[in-house]
Design brief:
Blueprint (H helix, E strand, L loop, with lengths): L2 H5 L2 H4 L13 E2 L11 H12 L12 H10 L7 E5 L1 H13 L5 E6 L3 H9 L3 E6 L8 H11 L3 E5 L11 H11 L4 E5 L3 H4 L13 E6 L1 H5 L5 E5 L1 H8 L9 H11 L2 H23 L5 E2 L6 E5 L3 H10 L2 E2 L1 E2 L10 E5 L3 H15 L2
Parallel strand pairs: 1-11, 3-4, 3-5, 5-6, 6-7
Antiparallel strand pairs: 2-8, 7-8, 9-10, 10-13, 12-13
Helix pairs in contact: 4-12, 5-6, 7-8, 13-15, 14-15
Length: 358
């Protein structure tokens, strides 16, 4: 028996590491990033701000100023605070660690964000996936039945969902929050909120078991790795106990504090992407034999015949998107593509048409 076999949990050894492909030299449309850089004058001001950061000192442990700016600029209800994470991934991990009582379960619709299941596994929790309907809407009866059977400690609802890009029905989500009740928390993951312009944030005062989780990554700051979640004070206090100390570095802290005072710039970029999303959807819809699913995110899910072949031919043309066809049976022959600038969207369309040609 090898050393790893002796000391590493078998369920971890059975996993493959999360793979991020090398995108050097490619048109990169696989990770839902904002393609726009900061305006040069703003980038220069940020550079000056970062030059003043004391890299020899630990961050302020409470992140008081940054949290106040998030609450003020990003729509957190009065009286509610936020907990910060190194991206949404760390927040998901905190929730799993905090809630991993013996026998505790995590529930979510599938297909969905893979880290819900992976984080549950890492914490020793059972993950229960409830398949969506074929149109990617919630199967509410199945969700309610799973809640009654499993009494999940944590239920995730992504709003919009990844990788399907659609918004679930808000009334059905409220029914799920009510069904979970005091038996668990419901985390509404709003990573793509800037493009959906729909939110459960204002519903926090009405539901003590509701947590709203977001990230600034899709807004245009993927490189600083900052996520936040809002909930009632008792829940946040418990989750905060498992937060690693100084988990937000000083450069991330300073960047976010500065740019939240210029949130209008990022909002304008999101508006451009929403506009160009509609143009891209129209162009794709006009391509024979291709299905474009409704989207409220900054990416599209499309279905084509021979998705593996199309994906490979796009790679040959140096266009990198995401092949999700093997992730779940409902995603058969599906590809996911990020909405980008008009020029990059056109490059993708040209490459796709050429890749579909017989």
């Amino acid at each position: 028996m090898t050393l790893s076999e002796k000391i590493i949990r078998p369920e971890v050894r059975a996993l493959a590491a999360y793979h991020v492909p090398d995108s050097a030299g490619f048109l990169k449309l696989d990770a839902m990033e904002n393609p726009y850089r900061l305006p040069a004058p703003l980038a220069q001001q940020l550079g000056q701000r970062l030059a003043e950061v004391a890299l020899n000192r630990y961050p302020t442990p409470t992140y008081r100023v940054l949290k106040q700016k998030i609450c003020t600029h990003l729509g957190v209800p009065p009286g509610f605070d936020v907990l910060l994470g190194n991206g949404s991934d760390e927040l998901i991990s905190m929730v799993s660690v905090a809630c991993a009582r013996p026998g505790a379960k995590v529930l979510a619709p599938v297909p969905g964000f893979v880290m819900y299941a992976m984080s549950a596994l890492f914490a020793g929790m059972e993950f229960v996936g409830v398949p969506l309907n074929p149109d990617f809407s919630l199967d509410l009866p199945a969700m309610l039945a799973a809640i009654r059977e499993h009494k999940p400690a944590v239920t995730y609802l992504a709003y919009p969902n990844n990788p399907t890009a659609n918004l679930f029905d808000a009334g059905q989500m409220l029914a799920i929050i009510e069904a979970v009740g005091n038996d668990g928390v419901v985390i509404v993951d709003e990573a793509y909120q800037p493009f959906a312009q729909a939110s459960f944030m204002d519903r926090l005062p009405a539901s003590d078991n509701l947590v709203v989780m977001r990230t600034v990554s899709k807004l245009g700051l993927a490189g600083i790795r900052l996520g936040y979640m809002a909930a009632c004070a008792p829940l946040l206090a418990e989750f905060d106990k498992v937060r690693p100390p100084y988990n937000i570095n000083v450069l991330t802290e300073a960047t976010a504090e500065f740019l939240l005072d210029h949130i209008d710039v990022l909002d304008q970029q999101a508006a451009l992407l929403r506009r160009d999303r509609a143009v891209l959807v129209a162009a794709l819809t006009a391509i024979p034999g291709l299905t474009v699913f409704p989207t409220s995110a900054n990416f599209l899910l499309i279905r084509v015949q021979d998705s593996d072949g199309v994906f490979a031919r796009l790679l040959d043309r140096k266009v990198l998107i995401k092949n999700v066809g093997k992730m779940h049976p409902l995603l058969a022959n599906c590809l996911r593509v990020t909405v980008s600038t008009p020029d990059e969207n056109q490059l993708f369309l040209d490459a796709l048409r050429a890749s579909l040609a017989p």
